[in-house]
Design brief:
Elements lengths: L26 E6 L6 H8 L2 H5 L4 E6 L3 H9 L5 E4 L1 H9 L5 E9 L1 E5 L15 E3 L6 H12 L12 E3 L4 H10 L4 E5 L2 H9 L2 E4 L11 E7 L1 H6 L1 H20 L1 H16 L5 H8 L2 E3 L5 H13 L16 H8 L2
Parallel strand pairs: 1-2, 1-3, 6-7, 6-8
Antiparallel strand pairs: 3-10, 4-10, 4-11, 5-8, 5-9
Helix pairs in contact: 1-9, 1-10, 5-12, 7-11, 9-13
C-alpha cells in the first residue's frame, strides 16, 4: 500500500533566542533540514557531538522545511550556524546577505523523477509538462532547469512551455504525485527515492548524472561573518562536531540510517521504509570536501536562468580554513 508522509514532518520548529548582537554568544541555535543529506547535522545532534564539543554553550536546534526559511532565520539571528543547500546560501550572498560557507556536508542527493503515467521518459519529454521543487531557484531547481535549457526547453517563468511549481515541500510532493497534480519533481533525498519505491515514479536522471551531480555540495555548513569574527572558538568547536559526525556516517552506516529514521519519526510519528533509506543513501556522498568551482558553476547557471540579475562573483563566499585545519589535525 502506498504511504503518504504527513506534512507535520516539515513543520517549522522555531526556537527563539535572545539577540546577542556583536558580542560573544553563550547561546547557539543550529539549523538543519529533516533530509537524508543532512545526515551529519542529524548525527551530531542526536549523538550529542555538538554539546560535547561546545561545552560552555547552550545549544538549541531548529528544523526547516526549505532553504528560504532557513536564510530568513539566519538573517534575523534566530539561528547562528547550520546546514542548508548551496542555492539559498548563494542567492542570499549575492543579494548582499551576510553569510559564509565553512565547508560541505554532502554532495549529490538530487534525483529527477517523473510520475507514473505522466508520459515523461526522458528530459526531452518535459515540454508542456509540470515539475515541482522545494524552492524557487533552489539547488535542485537550477540543476534541472539548466539541463532542460540544454534540451531547448524553458519554463513558463521565462516564456517557455514547462510549468514549474516552486516551494513544494517533499510531503506535498507525495500527495501531488498521488493525485496526478504534478508530472515530475527535482527532489532531495530520500524523498526522490521514496517517490520511486512507494509511488512507482520513474527515475529520469540519476543523482550522478544531474548537472554537477557528483561535485556540487547538496548541503553546506554556514554562519555569518560577524558570528565567525566574534565567536571563532565556538565555530571551531562546531566544526569539530561536524567532522566527527561525517566520520561516524562512514563507519556506522546502518546506525546512521536508523538514527535519521528515529528523528523523522519523532517529528512526524512515521518512519521511512528501510529500503528507501538504504537506496537513497547510495545516491549521495556525506563529505567535508567543498568544491568551490562547482558552487561558482551553479551560480553562473542560476544567472543564465534569470534567477539572479547580475553575473555572480562568489569571492569571499567560501572560507574553509578552520575546517581544513581540523581535518589536517591542527
Amino acid at each position: 500500500m502506498k504511504k503518504i508522509l504527513t506534512g507535520t514532518l516539515f513543520i517549522l520548529l522555531i526556537g527563539v533566542l535572545t539577540a546577542c548582537g556583536s558580542s560573544k554568544s553563550d547561546d547557539v541555535s543550529i539549523g538543519f533540514f529533516p533530509n537524508l543529506d543532512h545526515a551529519a547535522a542529524i548525527i551530531a545532534k542526536e549523538k550529542g557531538y555538538f554539546e560535547e564539543e561546545m561545552k560552555d554553550i547552550n545549544v538549541d536546534y531548529t528544523s526547516f522545511p526549505n532553504g528560504n526559511d532557513f536564510i530568513e532565520a539566519l538573517d534575523n539571528n534566530v539561528i547562528q550556524l547550520g546546514y542548508v543547500g548551496p542555492g539559498p546560501a548563494i542567492n542570499y550572498f549575492l543579494a548582499g546577505g551576510d553569510i559564509v560557507v565553512l565547508g560541505a556536508a554532502a554532495n549529490g542527493a538530487t534525483l529527477i523523477v517523473a510520475r507514473e503515467g505522466s508520459g515523461i521518459e526522458t528530459l526531452e519529454d518535459f515540454a508542456n509538462k509540470s515539475f515541482c521543487t522545494p524552492g524557487n531557484g533552489c539547488t535542485h531547481n537550477v540543476q534541472l532547469e539548466i539541463m532542460l535549457q540544454d534540451m531547448g526547453l524553458t519554463t513558463t517563468r521565462r516564456g517557455g512551455v514547462v510549468d514549474h511549481q516552486p516551494r513544494v515541500n517533499p510531503a506535498n510532493m507525495m500527495i501531488m504525485f498521488e493525485s496526478g497534480e504534478i508530472d515530475a519533481a527535482a527532489a532531495p533525498e530520500p524523498w526522490g527515492t521514496y517517490l520511486v519505491e512507494e509511488f512507482g515514479a520513474k527515475v529520469i536522471t540519476e543523482w550522478n548524472e544531474v548537472y554537477l551531480g557528483e561535485t556540487l555540495a547538496s548541503v553546506v555548513v554556514v554562519t555569518t561573518p560577524q558570528f565567525l569574527k566574534d565567536n571563532p572558538e565556538t565555530v571551531k568547536q562546531f566544526l569539530k562536531a561536524h567532522k566527527r559526525a561525517v566520520d561516524y556516517t562512514y563507519e556506522n552506516t546502518e546506525d546512521t540510517l536508523a538514527t535519521i529514521n528515529d528523528l523523522l519519526f519523532n517529528l512526524s510519528q512515521q518512519r521511512l521504509p528501510e529500503s528507501v533509506l538504504e537506496n537513497a543513501w547510495k545516491r549521495m556522498v556525506v563529505t567535508t570536501e567543498t568544491h568551490a568551482d562547482a558552487l561558482q558553476a551553479w551560480a553562473t547557471a542560476s544567472y543564465e536562468l534569470d534567477f539572479i540579475d547580475q553575473e555572480p562573483n562568489l569571492e569571499g563566499f567560501v572560507d574553509t580554513s578552520l575546517l581544513d585545519k581540523i581535518i589536517s589535525g591542527n
